[in-house]
Amino acid sequence: MFEVKKTAGDSSWFVHDRFGLFIHWGLYSLGARHEWLKSREKMTDERYDKYFRRFDPDLYDPELWAEYASGAGMKYFVITTKHHEGFCLWDSKLTDYKAPNTPAGRDLLRPIVEAFRGRGMKVGFYYSLIDWHHPHYTVDPKHPLRLDPKFIEESGKRDFYKYREYLLGQTKELLTQFGKVDLMFYDFSFPGENGLPGKGKDDWGSERLVGLIRELQPHILLNDRLQVGGDITTPEQYMPKEWVKADGQRVVWETCHTFSGSWGYHRDEETWKSAETLIKMLIDTVGKGGNLLLNVGPTGRGEFDERSLERLKGIGEWMKRHGRSIYGCTQAPESYIRPQDCRLTYNPATNRMYVHVFSWPFKNIHLHGFAGKVEYAQLLNDCSEIRMREGAAESTMAEGAFREGRDAETLTLSLPVKKPDVAVPVIELFLK
Ligand code: GLC
Fold this sequence. Notes:
Elements: H1 12-17, E1 19-23, H2 28-31, H3 37-40, H4 45-52, H5 62-71, E2 76-82, H6 109-118, E3 122-128, H7 149-155, H8 160-176, E4 183-187, H9 201-204, H10 206-216, E5 221-222, E6 232-233, E7 245-246, E8 249-250, E9 252-258, H11 275-286, E10 291-296, H12 306-322, E11 342-347, E12 352-357, E13 364-368, E14 374-379, E15 384-385, E16 387-390, E17 410-414, E18 426-431
Parallel strand pairs: 1-2, 1-10, 2-3, 3-4, 4-5, 6-9, 9-10
Antiparallel strand pairs: 7-8, 11-12, 12-18, 13-17, 14-15, 14-18, 16-17
This protein binds alpha-D-glucopyranose.
Alpha-D-glucopyranose binds near residues 36, 188 and 263.
C-alpha cells in the first residue's frame, strides 16, 4: 500500500482507531470566552486569580464523559493536563497552581484517565509548553503582559532554566503516576514578533525531554510541536488536501478541530459545525490516511454542554452503522478514481472499499477504473444490495461511443432514488 514514515512510538493502534476526543478544560472554562482570554485581555495573575478561587466543577462525572465519547465512536482521548494559563488538573508536587488547591479540592486528572481507560480507550496527555503563570517563564509575543514595560524588565531577571526543569519534572510526573500513557501532545513552539523573542526547542530543552519520554514510556506517540520531529504531525483547524507529508514522505497524521471557534468552553460563540459536517470531516480525513481529534470544552461545572452533546449523539448515530468504513481504513489505492461528490476509504485487511456519497445523485454512480474488480455491493446502513453493471451502456449509438460517462472500465451502481435516511450514505464494495 502506501509507504509511511516509521514512528519511534507505537502507531499501530492509532492508524486503526482514527477518531479521538480532545478535551480542553481549565480555569478559562469559567471565563467562558476562549482559553486564550488571559493573553487576549492582557490580564495579570491577580486579575486571573478570580477563576482559581472559584473553580468548583460540582457536576464533573468522568464516567459520563467516557460514555459520551465512546458512544460517538471515539477510541482515544487527549486532555489538557495543563494549558497555557499554567493551571494543572493533577496533583503536581512541583506547583501549588493545581486543581487540589481550588474549591474542587482534588486531582481531576486521575478519575478521567481511569474512566476512559475502563472503556478500553487509549490515553493521551496534552501539555502546554507555554506557561503564563510560572514565576520563571519569560516574556514573549504570546504572553499576557507582553506590552507591560515593568513586566518586561522584571522578566529579564527570570531564570528560564528553572522553568525548563519544571516542565521536565512535570513530564516525569505525568509519565510515572498514571500508568500507561499512549500519546503526548506538547503545545507549542513559535517565532519572535514585535521585538520579542519566540520560543523553541532550545528553550524547552526538547532533545532532553524527548530522551526522558522515550526512556519512561518507549511506546508513546509524540506529536511534532517540540521542533524536533515527532511521531505524528498535527495540522490544526484545517482540512489537508492530501495525505500529509514531511520532507516529501507520507507521515502518520492527525488533524484537530473544534466544534465551534474555541477550544475552551465558550458560552456565546455560535459558529457550531453540524454533526453532518463533522462526519464528513472524519470521512475526508480517513480517506487521506489521517486521524481526526474533535474537541469538547466542558463547562466550569464539569459538564459537556447541550450543543456538544447533540453533535456527539449525531456522530454516534452514524458511527454505529458506519464504523466499518472508518476503523482500520485508509486512503484507497491510487488506481481507483474517486467519483464525483464522493470520498473513498479502503480497508486493506478485509479488502473492502467504501464509497461515501456526500451529495446523493440521481440513480447512478459511475465508478471509473472499478470494472472487473468488485464482487458485491451493498448500502452499509442496512446491508441492502446495490445492483451493478459493468462496462459501457449497450446502446444504439455508434461503436465505441461514450454514453452516460461510461466506458469499458466503468462500474455503474444503481442507487435508490431516495437517499437513505443517514447523514452520509456509504456503499460497501467487496473487492475481488
Ligand atoms: C493552539 C492553541 C491552543 C489549543 C491548541 C490545540 O495551539 O494555542 O489554545 O490548545 O491549538 O491544538
